[in-house]
Amino acid sequence: MPAVVTYWAEHAWLPHPDGPAVRPEVLITVGAGGRITGVVPDSGPCPAGAVRLAGLALPGQANAHSHAFHRALRSTAQVGSGTFWTWRETMYQVAAALDPDSYLALATAVYAEMALAGITAVGEFHYLHHAPGGARYANPNAMGEALVEAAARAGIRITLLDTCYLSSGFGAEPTGPQLRFSDGDADAWAERAAALTDAPHARIGAAVHSVRAVPAGQLGTVAHWAATRRAPLHVHLSEQTAENDACLAAHGVTPTRLLADHGVLGPRTSAVHATHLTDEDVRLLAGSATTVCMCPTTERDLADGIGPARRLASAGCPISLGSDSHAVIDPFEEARALELDERLRTRTRGHWTANALLRAGGADGHASLGWPEAGRLEPGALADFCVLALDSVRTAGAPPALGAETAVFAASAADVRHLVVGGRHVVEDGVHRLVPETGRALADAVGALR
Q1: Residue 258 has pLDDT above 90, yes or no
Q2: Secondary structure E strands in 226-300
Q3: Cα–Cα distances in Å, from 250 out to 212, 216, 218, 226?
Q4: Gyration radius (Cα) of the chain, Å
Q5: What is the mean pLDDT of residues 375-390?
Q6: Where are the beta strands (DSSP E) in 105-199?
Q7: How far apart are CA 107 and CA 120, in angstroms?
Q8: Closest CA to 25 of 6, 40, 5, 4
Q9: pLDDT tens for residues 102-154?
Q10: C-alpha dist (Å) from residue 81 to 28, 77, 78, 84, 323
Q11: Catalytic amino acids?
Q12: What phi and psi, each to the nearest 5 degrees, are found at residue 5?
């Protein structure tokens, strides 16, 4: 990439004191460090030497919750009926088949699919640490490092949320495929995770898989590890009512209260799903400024329920979005579903503006992953953005001034024409420049696991 590169966007969604707005003919200049050095709207026709981007430029979307290997379950997990718990058994079969090489191939293809969908950063909730049966690889972080390398090959940023997973349930030892997930205790987890290092495209965070998978007395170890590094800390929370019931039986409190009592909640923490909450749970999350990551396409696919996202946001929780199990990878569908699910629940419209939903997928999602300098098209921000077609069968006809509404309520991942990460053109005219045959790469990687 040249020391300085200039992009000219036909339209761009830009910050403004009165609220974000779509502006025409926007020059975006990127310096040698991969950061935006200038944004000039109403600049006139595309100048010589600038890269012309037809459509609507948006900040890159952050996929704040991913399990890359779940992508291999697409369609297979849709056969028949069942529950979250029967789906989990199918997931375990895929988990048992992976090794560092096959995970590198699969995750590279999955992250390339994300890039094609407009995603510039992923939060990988990683708990598939060890070999089958729990034996350690010669490099204990071989699986995690494969994910970091996969993101580099796909041209996107990653926050590796190295996950502590020690128990199959409250007081129960891990068994079967879960043996791959466990380090034995939180201290051993912390020692292994400490060997992971940041890279220009990668940052290391932590995760508590769930209150059922980390004994209460060891939650503080994970929270302390993240706090001393000022790293993101994520946790699955109250995705299923069965988890709430089991936590009440074991500890006499809800999962949210248990996390609060052990110092897990806070402004660097993201609670994923948070589907089944009490009024006190909402107050605890909001009072601690904990982000809540909603994953609507997975939550509906697994019949989890509709979480209280609007109540949480109104109470003060930032909201981020994730594709979780990758039933689909489409950040615009996740954003749209947040509003549409709330409409179904309440039978009223207008709970979220398009601007608010783009912020959830952009700036707030990046902040939850420890990339606060991303998610905005302004000087000083990372030059991470995507460009949506405004002339597809889904997006054509609306005035460009309503580009935010078009993006959220009409567009799909298929409308992403370009993706730029750190100033580098990763997706050009709908083709991934680093993984040009992404569909074939996905088919090969998934097929190798069967």
Answers
A1: yes
A2: 233-237, 269-273, 291-294
A3: 10, 10, 15, 26
A4: 21
A5: 98
A6: 119-126, 157-164
A7: 15
A8: 40
A9: 999 999 999 999 999 999 999 999 999 999 999 999 999 999 999 999 999 99
A10: 49, 9, 8, 10, 21
A11: 273, 324
A12: -130, 145
Rounded distance, CA 80 to CA 94, Å? 18
pLDDT of 292-328, one tens digit each? 999 999 999 999 999 999 999 999 999 999 999 999 9
Q: How confident is the model at residue 86 (pLDDT cuts 50, 70, 90)?
A: confident
- Which residue's entry shows tokens 């769930």? 210
Q: Please report the DSSP string for 310-331 in residue order.
A: HHHHHHT--EEE--BTTSS--H
- The DSSP string of 9-37 is EEEEEE--TT--EEEEEEEEEE-TTSBEE
- The answer to whether the beta carbons of residues 9 and 47 sit under 8 Å apart is no
Q: Is 97 exposed, middle or buried (0-12, 13-18, 19+ CB in 10 A)?
A: middle
- Enter the tokens of residue 427: 């997706």
Q: Shortest CA distance to 284 belongs to which of 296, 304, 269, 299?
A: 269
Q: Is 90 exceeded by the pLDDT of residue 333?
A: yes
Q: What number of other Cβ atoms are within 10 A of residue 292's Cβ?
A: 27
Q: Tell me, what amino acid is at 85?
A: W
Determine the Cα–Cα distance for residues 94 and 69; give it in Å rounded to an integer.
Answer: 7
Residue 72: left if φ>0, alpha if ψ -120 to 50, beta else—which one? alpha
